[in-house]
Design brief:
By secondary structure, the chain is of the alpha/beta class. The protein contains 5 helices and 6 strands.
Amino acid sequence: MSELPPVTLYTDGSCLGNPGPGGYAAILVCGEHRMELAQGFSGTTNNRMELMGVIKGLEALKQQSMVEIFTDSQYVMKAFTDRWLVGWQKNGWKTAAKQPVKNQDLWKQLLPLIGAHKVTWRWVRGHSGHPENERCDVLARSAASSRNLQRDEGAA
C-alpha cells in the first residue's frame, strides 16, 4: 500500500456582524502545489464560516490524503479532539443541555470528509502572525465584504 500524500490545510472564517455577511477561506498546500479558496455568504455566522473553510478545503482534495488542518477555531477543532461530535451523535444531535446542536447541516457534511482522510488537528492563535492563518483571514474578510454574496441557506 502506498503512503498517503501529505497535505496541509489552513482555514479561517470571518463574519462582519454575527449573524451577518461572512466568508471562509482555505489554503491547501501539497509539496510545491498551493490552492487558495474563498467565498462569501450573507446571513451567516462566524462558526458556520469556520466550518465551511474546513469543508471546502477537504472537498477540494482529489484523493485520500494525510491532512494536517490548521485552524484558529476552538469550536471546530474541539468537536473532534474533545469528542463533542461523538456525544452529540449519541444524544440524537442534542447538546448535554438537551438543546439541538447548532450547524448540524455542516457537521453532517464535514463528518464523511474527515472520515475519508487521516486528519491531524493543529490550533493556531488567530492574529498571531502565522503567515497562512493571516492570509486566510485576509481572504475570508475580503470574501465577506464582496458584493455577490451567496445566501447561507443553512443559517437559522
